[in-house]
Automatic annotation (TrEMBL), chain A:
MF annotations from Gene Ontology: flavin adenine dinucleotide binding; oxidoreductase activity, acting on CH-OH group of donors
Ranges for domain Glucose-methanol-choline oxidoreductase C-terminal: 433-552
Organism: Aneurinibacillus aneurinilyticus ATCC 12856
InterPro entries, per database record: FAD/NAD-bd_sf, GMC_OxRdtase_N, GMC_OxRtase_C
Name of the featured protein: Putative gluconate 2-dehydrogenase flavoprotein
UniProt family annotation: Belongs to the GMC oxidoreductase family.
Keyword Transcription: no
PANTHER family tied to this protein: LONG-CHAIN-ALCOHOL OXIDASE
Domain Glucose-methanol-choline oxidoreductase N-terminal: 219-328
Length: 570, 257
């Protein structure tokens, strides 16, 4: 195997996590190599991006599933089978990773999230946590993480206004909120009338031209309506390619190698020595030695790479021992309602990925849970992300899904519906986890990651609760008809729900119950840092990227410290 | 009113809300003051004096031959079944054209000829097992193979039930055949009838509303049904306005410089 000269740091995957780490470390003079399995991406690629079929329905920016996928089963009694086609979530690929195709909805998790177990017990007693629910504190508080939230928001240029029900901020958002559309105004007015606390959704689509602290200038969002699943041709949506990656490159200390698929972390005596990767254009296997290995390849590949490398202790659901693969969680997205307005037409074809208004009255522990059969909650939002015509065929419940009536109704209501949706949190359970599949392999012959997951009573109760609240708001907004999606059903891998997969390499303050400390440094290998939503011990009722960004900045600080002094940072 | 007349009527509507990328750039006058240009604006500003093709509403639109309307995959009898079936899924009515006039069957034909028809980006490795419903498609057949089998079975079912081929059935009989597939009332061992119906239905919607470059949504008439403006570069001017903004749609062709 070809062995390359050693570098200070090797990064596995160049998305938000990898880009943030690269920019911070290279600014300090460290030599960093970024290995990215996919291809180069740049803003100029998106001049033909307003193509709903190619990007939203043929998954142009996503991982090629013919080469690699995940396998899925609802529980351990069922045979896991491969996710052969896209559905429930979308896995990013290429420079920028999933950071290219996000909507830009950028939240901070709540103070409650970081101390969820102790705060739940403190307020409701330990019987409030049902058997098997494996929530735990994160080993860090909101106050400790606050400076890093602030830093990420300034890098990305978040446009927003104060959320009255969130943790305390050290500074306001770097940009004013996005424009207020007529439907957002309706939502805000209705929510205020109901004594709720609406605010404009914090957005990584810039409300105005902005130059960030690293000197990167970007143009304002044009509300073109093509964000999620698409790249931004204006560079207005913050993504790693237009923020952190150019900063790292400019130092001269960052080398990106695309088409380089990292397959193993090489290690000896509890420390990594580098990585082995395949140049996918030639098939050659190459060793890249490094002092520090940073794993930033999304939840599934973070877990898979550790397990395939036999690094860390694999999680065993029968004993609850081990940590790699533990606490896989997701998002409860079905709690929503759609309002049909017969006498109004909205410009909902226009929009931006993070344009909207929302409220947190039913999120976290912002309300009393004494009389409900679930903990936590979810953000409720009315977004205007741009309704595109293949996806947007709203019909009242009971309408056939094809034929004359379907066509008439879907055409009639194309610009006459508004959706208010809950983004439910997802609690971990002892029997929800990731491990290696024993049958199905990727294109290299390595085992695929296997997901064992289903919705629980907690999720069903939460979805029903949020859906009802969403319906109430739409009624107050004056909809002629409101259809409420109250039944969550079992977890189904096919309908798209959310690309907010979390857990598997979770953080904490105890090596027995977590894989990484609060600098995302592995307990079992001090020169390996594992970054991403894989570090979340549970998922909150928010989009995860703001919290991923904050944790990445904290990890960068930790890596710099470790580079200077060595040893465990905990 | 013919489709041509409709198109012309739309084109005459006020178009000042629609902003081309070039106009946006000129008007906005961005100065890239930072060290690094995060966006594409800089390279766009270098585009020379070429003007974007402007639709001239006064010029009579003679319809040239559409060379895209030929078959890449289907045999002609298959094509006719798909054309008839998709028209039932998305029929012409007072609001505008149906699947047939929109070219949906050509769209499906062209899609089956490429990556989608070959399931090129799907995981198709064995072993194959029948899974739970929540595990999604677990078959070994590719979409083009599913179409081959399903179209033959639609024909067989039509013959056995009505003694006629699908294309020769009345619209009500065609609906009954499609419903029998949708509800798995047809018993097949090779493919899932409802699975096929779901593919056919979603491909019909895609063909009605995808950019016309793919062969469906002919003349952007699918978009016009819904007053969807296609892909405009910017909605800054209308995003916070109360009144509904009607504008003639643009396709990706308008953005090729």
């Amino acid at each position: 195997m070809k062995k390359l000269p050693k570098v200070d740091v090797v990064i596995v995957g160049v998305g938000w996590g990898g880009g943030i780490i690269a920019s911070e470390l290279t600014k300090k003079g460290m030599k960093v190599v970024g290995l990215e399995r996919g291809k180069e991406r740049k803003t100029e690629d998106y001049l033909m991006v307003h193509d709903e079929l190619r990007y939203a329905y043929r998954y142009e920016l996503m991982q090629d599933l013919s080469k690699e996928t995940i396998t899925f089963r609802s529980n351990e009694r069922i045979r896991a089978l491969p996710m052969r086609q896209y559905g429930s979530f979308l896995i990013g690929d290429g420079i920028g990773g999933a950071g290219v195709h996000w909507n830009g909805q950028n939240y901070r998790f709540l103070p409650y999230d970081f101390q969820i177990k102790s705060k739940t017990i403190e307020r409701y007693g330990k019987n409030k946590i049902p058997d098997g629910m494996s929530i735990q504190d994160w080993g860090i508080t909101y106050e400790e993480l606050e400076p890093y939230f602030d830093k990420f928001e300034k890098t990305a240029g978040i446009s927003g206004e104060e959320n009255p029900l969130a943790g305390k901020r050290s500074d306001k958002y770097p940009n004013p909120p996005m424009k207020t559309t007529p439907s957002m105004k309706m939502f805000i007015d209705a929510a205020k009338k109901m004594k709720l606390h609406p605010y404009i959704l914090p957005s990584a689509n810039l409300s105005q031209a902005y130059t960030n602290p690293d000197g990167v200038a970007r143009a304002a969002c044009q509300y073109c309506g093509y964000c999620e699943r698409f790249g931004c041709e204006y560079g207005a949506k913050a993504d790693p390619v237009v923020t952190v990656i150019p900063v790292a490159k400019k130092t001269g200390n960052f080398e990106i190698r695309t088409h380089s698929y990292v397959r193993r972390i090489l290690h000896k005596g509890g420390k990594a020595t580098g990585v082995m990767y395949t140049d996918v254009t030639t098939g050659e296997e190459i060793e890249q030695p490094a002092d520090i290995v940073v794993v930033t390849s999304y939840v599934f590949n973070n877990v898979r790479l550790l397990l395939n490398s036999k690094l860390g202790r694999p999680y065993d659901p029968s004993t609850g021992k081990g940590v790699i693969g533990k606490n896989y969680a997701y998002q409860v997205m079905r709690g929503s309602a759609i309002g049909f307005f017969d006498n109004k037409e909205f410009n909902t074809f226009a929009g931006a990925g993070a344009l909207g208004a929302c409220l947190d009255d039913y999120n976290g522990d912002n309300f009393d849970h004494s009389n409900v059969n679930f903990i936590h909650g979810g953000n409720i939002a009315m977004t205007q992300t741009g309704l595109r015509p293949i996806a947007n065929n709203p019909v009242p419940k009971g309408t056939p899904s094809w034929g004359k009536e379907f066509k008439a109704q879907s055409v009639k209501y194309a610009n006459r519906t508004l959706t208010v949706a809950g983004q439910g949190s997802s609690m971990p359970f002892r029997h929800h986890y990731l491990d290696l599949d024993s049958v199905y392999k990727d294109v290299f012959g390595d085992p695929l990651i296997r997901m064992t997951f289903d919705f629980e009573e907690q999720d069903r109760q939460l979805a029903k609760f949020l859906a009802t609240k969403c319906g109430d708001i739409l009624k107050e907004m004056g909809a002629n008809r409101v259809d409420i999606n109250i039944n969550l059903g079992p977890y189904d891998i096919m309908p798209y729900q959310s690309t907010h997969n979390t857990g598997g390499v979770i953080m904490g303050n105890n090596p027995d119950t977590s894989a990484v400390n609060n600098y995302l440094q592995m307990w079992d290998a001090e020169n390996v840092f594992v970054i991403g939503a894989s570090a979340f011990p549970h998922n909150s009722g928010y989009n995860p990227t703001g919290t991923v960004g904050a944790l990445a900045y904290r990890a960068a600080e930790g890596i710099i410290k470790y580079h200077q002094k060595g040893g465990s940072l905990a | 009113m013919s489709n041509d007349e409709k198109t012309e009527g739309r084109a005459k509507e006020k178009t000042d809300v629609s902003v081309s990328r070039r106009n946006f750039l000129k008007k906005s006058g961005y100065v890239l003051g930072g060290v690094l240009a995060g966006g594409v604006i800089g390279s766009l500003l270098n585009v020379g004096g070429k003007k974007p093709p402007l639709a001239n509403p006064e010029q009579p639109t003679s319809a040239p031959s559409d060379y895209n309307q030929a078959l890449m995959y289907f045999k002609q009898d298959q094509f006719r079944i798909v054309e008839a079936a998709t028209e039932r899924i998305f029929p012409a009515d007072d609001s505008g054209p149906g699947a047939k006039a929109l070219g949906v069957a050509f769209f499906i034909d062209h899609q089956l000829a490429g990556d989608w028809g070959f399931n090129a980006r799907d995981y198709m490795q064995p072993p194959f097992y029948k899974g739970e419903a929540v595990q999604g498609y677990q078959g070994r057949l590719k979409r083009r193979e599913i179409f081959d089998i399903a179209l033959q079975e639609m024909q067989n079912y039509s013959q056995s039930k009505y003694k006629k081929g699908f294309v020769d059935l009345t619209p009500e009989q065609q609906d009954a055949v499609l419903t029998a597939f949708e509800k798995d009332e047809v018993k097949l061992t090779t493919i899932s009838p409802s699975g096929f119906f779901r593919i056919l239905r979603s491909a019909t919607i895609e063909g009605a509303y995808a950019d016309p470059l793919y062969g469906g949504n002919k003349n952007m008439d699918g978009w016009k049904l819904k007053n969807y403006p296609g892909n405009q570069m910017a909605y800054m001017q209308i995003i916070d306005k109360d009144e509904f903004a009607k504008m003639p749609p643009k396709s990706l062709k308008d953005h090729l410089h």
